[in-house]
């Protein structure tokens, strides 16, 4: 076994790892990038980019479906599943190629392939071939989709989202477990492309939403179009006798069970940080109940150690922009250690590319019920009768906006509705800039645009700010659950 010595070792070559590597190198440190799998980020290979390719195909099919409502009759619509998936895979491979090309540009001596495991606070063993001794480390090992063992036992027709983008054709049917971002995005896209889809949700959650009024509107919007079964859990999965599908048994809130056959069961119940095979028990780091090292979210430093953690591995905000920021902060601080400094943490922004789109920005309703209980006002707008939304036949959804009573400072928003990806950016910028509601209402609003709905919500919010109740809390329940 050979031994390598370096100043900084970065474990994982995804978005966080590559950004961390570049930051540490920019800090003037000798840096080694270690990867156990193929190069290519989760986003490019199995995440945001291939999913948007599938969603774009679904949007094209949906527009043809609703065209007659505009007085336009496109004729017979035929969806070529093989052609759809060929484009998804081809463009996916193109995006992955850009990432691989970037990694190929790194010096050969800076790259090492194999599974890394701590054997001491300053040593990694890579596979069975290399010992790495380093002064500082960045853990950027990403995450893995969760597929329960009892489901996986039903065979290869039980999959995670990773497998969807390797299909060479669209299946006849798919059961989706989970009403989070991945389950709803892929479930709706597949349904719009002609696949029979049923989505099971153990509770009543919809993507990242926490505001009860927005949630209610979102559930209605999803069930209007899709076979979404809230408060229904998958209790058994078995293989079909011919091996060409699965038999799924579900149970609703009343205890009634229902058994159906599908070509696939897609597990979209979450992702697990890849920290359990890193030998973290040999680092001396304090860890939480999930095995993730305790760390400072402003510096990415684990305790007061020379080890930093970034991206999906720390399970804070599993999104590409956050992973890049985490990696930059971690790599910069690994280079400057022990002179660790807080890095730039941006205002939270999360977008789900369903239709209607879903966005949360700044502080969420549930967070404000903890941090500002009784001290924040709410304004809202429905998109049902909003002018531009009706013009586009996209008049579904609701926006709720939040501000602090004492200062009028804008705190955040949650929404489901048209153009949420654009509105989300505008409102998150307002939060980060520290704008008041009054200052936001002084901004220009054109006509007719969806953003006029934002103005309506802000005007409602301004009204509530002027009439602070004496003893009222807008939270449905700000106390912990029993």
From TrEMBL:
- A Pfam short name: Pyr_redox_2
Q: Which residues form the FAD/NAD(P)-binding domain?
A: 7-325
| Single Gene Ontology MF annotation | NAD(P)H dehydrogenase (quinone) activity
Question: Which keywords annotate this record?
Answer: FAD, Flavoprotein, NAD, Nucleotide-binding
| Disulfides per UniProt | 43-48
Q: What does the entry list as the binding residues for FAD?
A: 52, 141-143, 312
Name residues in a coiled coil. Answer: none
Among InterPro entries, the record links this protein to:
FAD/NAD-bd_sf (IPR036188), FAD/NAD-binding_dom (IPR023753), FAD/NAD-linked_Rdtase_dimer_sf (IPR016156), Mn/Fe_SOD_N_sf (IPR036324), Pyr_nuc-diS_OxRdtase (IPR001100), Pyr_nucl-diS_OxRdtase_dimer (IPR004099)
* Annotated active site: 447
Cofactor-binding details, from the entry: Binds 1 FAD per subunit.
Where, by residue number, does NAD(+) bind?
Answer: 178-185, 270
Per its UniProt record, the required cofactor names are: FAD
Q: Does the keyword NAD apply?
A: yes
Where is the Pyridine nucleotide-disulphide oxidoreductase dimerisation domain positioned along the sequence? Answer: 351-457
Family classification: Belongs to the class-I pyridine nucleotide-disulfide oxidoreductase family.
The protein in question is named: Dihydrolipoamide dehydrogenase
Q: Which organism is it from?
A: Duganella sacchari
């Amino acid at each position: 076994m050979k031994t390598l010595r370096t100043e900084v070792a970065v474990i994982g070559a995804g978005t966080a790892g590559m950004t961390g590597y570049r930051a540490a190198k920019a800090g003037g440190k000798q840096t080694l990038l270690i990867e156990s799998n193929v190069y290519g980020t989760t986003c490019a290979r199995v995440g945001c980019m291939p999913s948007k390719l599938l969603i774009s195909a679904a949007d094209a099919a949906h527009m043809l479906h609703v065209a007659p409502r505009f007085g336009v009759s496109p004729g017979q619509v035929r969806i070529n599943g093989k052609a759809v998936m060929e484009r998804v895979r081809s463009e996916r491979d193109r995006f992955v190629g850009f990432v691989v090309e970037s990694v190929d540009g790194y010096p050969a001596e800076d790259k090492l392939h194999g599974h890394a495991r701590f054997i001491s606070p300053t040593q990694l063993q890579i596979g069975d071939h290399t010992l790495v001794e380093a002064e500082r480390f960045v853990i950027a090992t990403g995450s893995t989709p969760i597929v329960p063992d009892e489901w996986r036992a039903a065979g290869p027709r039980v999959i995670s989202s990773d497998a969807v983008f390797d299909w060479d054709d669209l299946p006849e049917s798919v059961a989706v477990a989970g009403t989070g971002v991945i389950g709803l995005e892929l479930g709706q896209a597949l349904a719009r492309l002609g696949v029979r889809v049923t989505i099971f949700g153990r509770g009543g959650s919809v993507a990242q939403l926490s505001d009860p009024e927005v949630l209610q509107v979102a559930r209605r919007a999803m069930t209007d179009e899709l076979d979404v079964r809230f408060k229904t859990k998958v209790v058994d999965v078995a293989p079909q006798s011919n091996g060409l599908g699965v038999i799924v048994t579900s149970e609703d809130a009343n205890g009634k069970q229902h058994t159906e056959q599908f070509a696939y069961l897609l597990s979209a119940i979450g992702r697990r940080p890849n920290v359990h095979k890193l030998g973290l028990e040999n680092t001396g780091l304090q860890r939480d109940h999930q095995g993730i090292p305790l760390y400072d979210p402003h510096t990415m430093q684990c305790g007061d150690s020379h080890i930093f953690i970034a991206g999906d591995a720390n399970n804070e905000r599993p999104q590409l922009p956050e992973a890049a920021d985490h990696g930059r902060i971690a790599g910069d601080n690994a280079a400057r250690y022990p002179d660790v400094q807080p890095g730039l943490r941006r205002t939270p922004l999360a977008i789900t590319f369903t239709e209607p789109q879903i966005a949360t920005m700044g502080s969420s309703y549930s967070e404000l019920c903890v941090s500002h209980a009784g001290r924040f006002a709410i304004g809202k707008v429905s998109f049902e009768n909003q002018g531009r939304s009706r013009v586009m036949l996209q008049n579904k959804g609701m926006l709720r906006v939040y501000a602090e009573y004492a200062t009028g400072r804008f705190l955040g928003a949650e929404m489901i509705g048209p153009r949420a990806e654009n509105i989300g950016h505008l409102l998150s910028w307002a939060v980060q800039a520290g704008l008041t509601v009054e200052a936001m209402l002084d901004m220009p609003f054109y006509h007719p645009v969806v953003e006029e709905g934002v103005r309506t919500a802000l005007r409602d919010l301004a009204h509530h700010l002027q009439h602070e109740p004496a003893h009222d809390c807008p939270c449905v329940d700000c106390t912990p659950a029993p």
